[in-house]
Amino acid sequence: MDSLLNSCKLAQKELLKLSNENRNKCLENISKALKDNIKFILEENEKDINNAKANGISSVMVDRLKLDEKRLNNIADSVIDVMNLKDYIGEVIEEFNPENGLNIKKIRVPFGVICAIFESRPNVSVDITALTIKTANACVLKGGKEAINTNKALVKVMRNAICDIVNPDIITLIESTDRKTTDELITKKEYIDLLIPRGSKRLINYIVENSKVPYIETGAGNCTLYVHEDAKLHMALNVCINAKHQRPSVCNAIENIIVDKKIAANFLPELKQAFETLTPSVEIRGDKEVQKIIDCKPATDEDYYTEYNDYIVSVKIVDGVDSAIEFINEHSTKHSEAIITEDMDAVNKFFTEVDSACLYHNASTRFTDGGEFGFGAEIGISTTKLHARGPMGLREITTYKYIISGNGSVRK
Amino acid sequence: MDSLLNSCKLAQKELLKLSNENRNKCLENISKALKDNIKFILEENEKDINNAKANGISSVMVDRLKLDEKRLNNIADSVIDVMNLKDYIGEVIEEFNPENGLNIKKIRVPFGVICAIFESRPNVSVDITALTIKTANACVLKGGKEAINTNKALVKVMRNAICDIVNPDIITLIESTDRKTTDELITKKEYIDLLIPRGSKRLINYIVENSKVPYIETGAGNCTLYVHEDAKLHMALNVCINAKHQRPSVCNAIENIIVDKKIAANFLPELKQAFETLTPSVEIRGDKEVQKIIDCKPATDEDYYTEYNDYIVSVKIVDGVDSAIEFINEHSTKHSEAIITEDMDAVNKFFTEVDSACLYHNASTRFTDGGEFGFGAEIGISTTKLHARGPMGLREITTYKYIISGNGSVRK
């Protein structure tokens, strides 16, 4: 393990010397090679699919794992999209000349080695590779065992595609997929500059509890939408439907709807009717106050902390914006929350006091996404406050250093 | 512990609602109260001094611990300096309008609760309090047992000074000073948003190994100065003297001098003579190659990794800029390094390839300091790459959130 990681670290020093043009050339070659090797990659993917079926893995998971010509072409095209994004490396973020006579430049630089630990979806290995090469970072990839043949094939093709330009160890796959390897990997502070876990809550919590390597926590989204007393109810209903129903499996979908008590008797029956007539329908869970107004399943305290990732929503009645904010700060995973209202004082209070990465006024939480924010790419949604918050694009996987010029300057 | 931390977290919600004027008023009151209560504070400090002497603590440490009227007035004045700095909270860092029609603002916000764990120097409790209040952060302070009476007195005075404006629990002192309390504190992710350890390498390593709370590593400085073959030797000598001798106890002093082999025979005797004639003199340790040129103590491999914080320097001969960069990246704590040369190609290579927070050309590493960088204040020097690198001022103890406005906007 140490020798693999050290090779990756040394290879990054080579990558650091490449121009943006040469880093782009790597990405162009990778995209082309993925398309040229479709047959090989799909054969290897087929092995994973067969193993998954033999192991009785759910059809949803098998679908996540499966590549076909169209999916693979999309993955290859997305590498070109990353290639065409802005080059952030070397950017002078600030320049200043303090009284001591020095010239100080704050310039944007790569982290060095970024390690991604992720679960089944095989596109992640290509995505992370493209984003890291574009930013002159090397990557260490550890995928799930379900996708090991696919990941090996993808990494082999990508490494071959760049080996004439740069040391291919800038893409390093950890082939052992067991937990013990993860345990070892997350102590390797001397080789890995940043760890990005992508996958289930269980995986992310495990990293948070055990990592000695600096990491950015991603993904968990227990998002809440608050319908304020001055909301346009028709708008509130539309946004609720979009935020809950469009794609409930993702982290920016809402899990809780909290409704001001002054409008609950009007709004909740409409919400229930709308959610019942959708296909698939959305199950409402409510506490006793909600159940006085509409007929629904009971919500436990636990429900309000739960990210269902399903066609289920917890509903609660709150008494004004202060109690709405209190509810959110207590239950939220600090991802995305929305307020629907025409009252700008309530909006400002909500924006100031709710402690989450992305706060929406009269809009769906579903917009928390690198693409929707115009970043062109996304490495994950950060739910920590350190370094990057919310959608992370290329810029968020860079750091900076100060370069300082003097003329024999000494401190007085 | 949980109840203390929870009170601090809740008090921060109040602080968040204060205007910059009211936060400044808190700082003004604190500064005045520190001056008004000099007698009380010095009496309490006297207890710590007496305990320290009774426990046989070194005179250097006793001096660090000791307050007098002048030191306390300086500490109180520095609170006013922080008060007069720019207000970063609420600053719109960026604003953009992607194609989906939303308006997205990235605004600067406090972390929430910042916990500082620090050792003997009692000015730290006032410094951290001032910096956090200015940025609308609450602080949890845990000082060393040697300064407990002083810290209690300072915190009591500061809390009393602000209690008419805001809930004084925004300044929370952990009175228990044992290791078990630290162990507990560094798991309290639900209350503490950011941990800043300030003190010995041992303390910082302990935090890095054990903390579940996001932290910024500070302080360790194994800094190197590289005398390139095209250096002006007189300039090199001056900078070496400043970087090593002016204040060897601090993290931005150099511990290693590496000299290009083409100039070693000229430069090393001059260096030796200069270092020997300083008061106090500087001890040179060199490997075999160095010892061929000058008479000095032998340097072990270990020496080149050592932060002496003393009038000692390790010297090594290197063969060109590549091997200088390799030496630094291997031995450095990623704090500050310098190159002395007239060759701009060498400078650019050094700036690109050395992986440390602050890189100097023809200047002393001693400038790595919030004050020298014009930040007006310093919370520490970060040696990590996540969030903040190098000197951290007010801005570096803030984070951001996105506030997004739509008009019933839903994702397509």
Structure description:
The structure is a homodimer of 412-residue chains. By secondary structure, the first copy, chain A, is of the alpha/beta class. The mean pLDDT of chain A is 95. In chain A, the strands form four sheets. A seven-stranded parallel beta sheet of chain A has the order 10-9-11-8-7-12-13, with helices on both faces. In chain A, strands 5-4-3-6 form a four-stranded parallel beta sheet, sandwiched between helices. A three-stranded antiparallel beta sheet of chain A has the order 1-2-16, with no helix packed on it. The longest helix of chain A has 17 residues, at 20-36. Chain A folds into two domains: 2-217 and 387-405, Aldehyde Dehydrogenase, Chain A, domain 1 (3-Layer(aba) Sandwich), CATH 3.40.605.10; 223-367, 3-Layer(aba) Sandwich (Aldehyde Dehydrogenase, Chain A, domain 2), CATH 3.40.309. In chain A, α2 packs across α7 (148-162), α3 (38-54) packs antiparallel against α7 and α10 (233-245) packs across α11. Chain A is globular. Chain A contains 14 helices and 16 strands. In chain A, α10 links the parallel β7 (223-227) and β8 (254-260). β13 (358-363) of chain A pairs parallel with β16 of chain B, so a sheet runs across the interface.
